[in-house]
Amino acid sequence: MTPFVLFRETSFQVYEGVNCLCDENLSAGEPFSNEHFIDKLKVAISGKGISALYYESSLYTLVPQSVFKLHAAESYFKLNFGEIPAGHAIAFDQLHSLNLVVVYVIPNWLERLKREQFSVIPLKHVITQILNRIRHKANSNFYGIELGKNYNIIAFQENKLLICNAYTVSSTEDLLYYSLLTFKNVMQKNANQLVFYPLTMNEETLKSSVNSINDWSNIPTSFHSSQQFILDLLCV
């Protein structure tokens, strides 16, 4: 598999399949000007090329393609999150398979890195890639996906996207009860299953907590590892 890069506000990882080739925290200030940062990235992908660049953050919003206007992209973002954070620029991804546009912000250093170092490599928000992948699997599934410090809830009913939002949760119990509440409110018919990708949370702890919640007994639930998350949703 060709490597891909997952950027966050203060770190980046390079993956080849499930193997992490590089895991670096970015220095303060302008990481793009840091030769060490560039050298680390180039060494990790030496001779292998890159298939995709992903950016992960909770600051994204979905806009129907039918109403999306390029000149209004900044306004769509501000409607949900207020002013654009300093040192960031508006970006957006066309998600034709769901007739949606994902509007978000990326750091200025990442925009320059993409333009000057990887001009032909696609850069998109990680949620764009996830939605595009699970629409083939979803049918009527409810997904709970841990990304960084946030928990993303995605639900499909008969292949129609019902919800896609990022939340901050403080504990495993909060995550499970919020998932259960949202599941009951959003899923109008029986879902095939509730699918968890707990990337850093302990899977056994989650399973034990789920088993202790009476209302969960009739909900088919599956748990997938961080390695499975990469294979299922991120690998190109």
Describe the structure.
With 236 residues, the protein is an alpha/beta fold. Helix content is 32%, strand content 32%. It contains 7 helices and 13 strands. The strands form 3 sheets. A 5-stranded mixed sheet has the order 3-2-1-4-8. The longest helix is centred in the last third of the chain and has 15 residues, at 172-186. It is globular. The relative contact order is 0.13. The mean pLDDT is 86.
> What is the strand tally?
13
Judging from the principal axes of the Cα atoms, what is the shape?
globular
| Helical residue percent band | 25-40%
Please indicate the percent range of residues in DSSP E strands (runs of 2 or more): 25-35%
Low-confidence stretches: none
Structural class: alpha/beta
Strand order of the largest sheet: 3-2-1-4-8
- Output the helix-strand order: EEEHEEHEEHEHEEEHEHEH
- Report how far apart the termini are: 8 Å
Q: In DSSP terms, counting alpha (H) and pi (I) runs of 4 or more, how many helices?
A: 7
Largest sheet data: 5 strands, mixed
Task: Describe the secondary structure blueprint for this structure.
Blueprint: E1 4-7, E2 11-16, E3 19-25, H1 35-44, E4 52-55, E5 60-64, H2 73-81, E6 88-95, E7 100-107, H3 108-117, E8 123-125, H4 126-138, E9 141-147, E10 150-157, E11 160-167, H5 172-186, E12 193-197, H6 203-211, E13 221-223, H7 226-234
Parallel strand pairs: 1-4, 4-8, 9-12, 12-13
Antiparallel strand pairs: 1-2, 2-3, 5-7, 6-7, 9-10, 10-11
Using brief descriptors, characterize the structure shown:
236 residues, alpha/beta, five-stranded mixed β-sheet
